[in-house]
Amino acid sequence: MDSINKAVLDLKRLDLLANNDSSIHRLDARAKVLVTCVFIICIVSYGRYELAALFPFFIFPAVIIALADLPPLFIARKIALLCPFVLVVGMFNPVFDREVLLHLGSFAVSGGWVSFASIVVRSILTVGAAFILVGVTGFTAVCQALERLGMPQVFAVQLLFLYRYIFVLTEEAGRASRARELRACGKKGLGIRSFSSLIGHLLLRTWQRAERIHMAMLARGFTGAFHAHRQSHFGKSELMFVLGWSTLFIFLRLQNASQLLGKLVTGLFP
Amino acid sequence: MSHHIVEVKNLRHVYSDGTVALKDASFRITHGESVGIIGANGAGKSTLLLHLNGYLEPTSGNIRIGDIPLSKGTLPDIRRTVGMVFQDPDDQLFMPTVFDDVAFGPFNLGMAVADVEQRVTEVLELVGANHLRDKPPYNLSGGEKKRVAIATVLSMSPDILVMDEPTNGLDPFARRQLMALIRDFKHTRIFTSHDLDMVLELCERVIVLHEGEVWADGPTLEIFNNEKLLAECRLEKPLSMQGCPICGSGRLAGSAIPCPKSYASSGFDS
Lengths: 270, 270
Known about the structure:
Chain A: The chain crosses the membrane at residues 53-70, 79-96, 116-142. Chain A: It is found in: Cell membrane. By secondary structure, chain A is mainly alpha-helical. Chain A contains twelve helices and two strands; from the N terminus they run H-H-H-H-H-H-E-E-H-H-H-H-H-H. Chain A has one domain (2-222, 245-256). The relative contact order of chain A is 0.14. Chain B has two domains: 2-97 and 157-237, Rossmann fold (3-Layer(aba) Sandwich), CATH 3.40.50.300; 238-270, no CATH class. In chain B, helix 4 packs across helix 5, helix 4 runs parallel beside helix 6 and helix 5 packs across helix 6 (142-154). The A-B interface holds A 12, 15, 140, 160-161, 163-165, 167-168, 209, 212-213, 215-223, 225, 227-229 and B 50, 53, 55, 76, 79-80, 83-84, 86, 88, 90-92, 94-97, 100, 103-105, 107-109, 113, 116-117, 136-139, 152-153, 156.
């Protein structure tokens, strides 16, 4: 449970980064959300064997991290946390897809390995972009931006509640698990049985809490609508930010920049 | 000012599992009174409070807030009149920032944005929490959360303030701060608490609940001096009314003046 507590603390740190002040932080959240969306769509729209064309996209996270003064190692560690999931997703590609796709010197690389590498690179780019978005905007502002961009309010409210109570619930889970561990005296306790009962209790407690929160909302005149008042301004700099990055992403998507660069270099030095 | 009156007549509540939480409770609280509802665990205090703003429906009996009988149709009015502060502030603070949380009620009342901003600032200043306005609730300490929770209710300008265990879990300093705050309110105030010293200081009248019935209702000092009654209801005198723990001599009833002998015998010089 210690690791979960740590993960939550890390999440808080990511959110606190959003309080910094930089040219990127000051932009309207909608601009940042839009650019991140275009970025992610461009990345995931590539074919499964595409690898070289993905690398130029690293310019986006690199520039934003530099401009917004985010800690790059911290972001890298956050992305690394997701690596096991990515590896599971791509694990069987090299096994099933053995057709040789390219040769690196005398070394033959199968299509499976290329698609595996492509999955890893794409995950790093998309997950990294999402973390950076939260780091320069803050989760709440991202939700509100999504809502203003047309996402139904129900989803925005769900996300906000999830974010608000994830801290409370992980603390509760951490306490329950600590209590179990202390009485298990270093052994397994009752093993999976005690864990399933613990999870059941947590679920019931969550339910009760949800009821109390609903009660508190009703007590303050809640009728189903959420009114959040935010001053935001989508001005010239936002427009430039969106247009500039989107044009670059779409250009990179349509033209293989790595190949262009390669041709340029080989053309210059035949 | 008849809308500040709370009248409960023959209130009975049976939960769906058959537990009789309230057998027969009747009382009348008038404008500006500060009333403590005390009793053992399971005496029905929380159930009673949940009736006062209509979250629970009486099995039988009725409740009037001012001239309005509590019913489905009058709920919005009642909830505006009766402000309810819950025991766990984490249940009450569900919005992304302190400002949003305090503004939640006024927005639901349909106030204009500028008015809401002014109201939120006023109320946060009143509870001494204006410096926290942009913070997310999970970054607040227990005492801060409690004060903000009170602000969320005050922002709706209720006529009657109902609080469930307001001093629960606070350190001595935060408890004193909160008591000073509550003492200054001009509202009709109703608390439940096991902190009998707080009840002694803040309430001129006490209602004792025992097994779902009103066992006693009268001036605070009179009730706290009735040791037989208190013992019957699994209660005891507030600590400040009990004898000095060192020499056993009594204190002035209801005062916090310490016993001089205890200072002498413990080596303190007065």
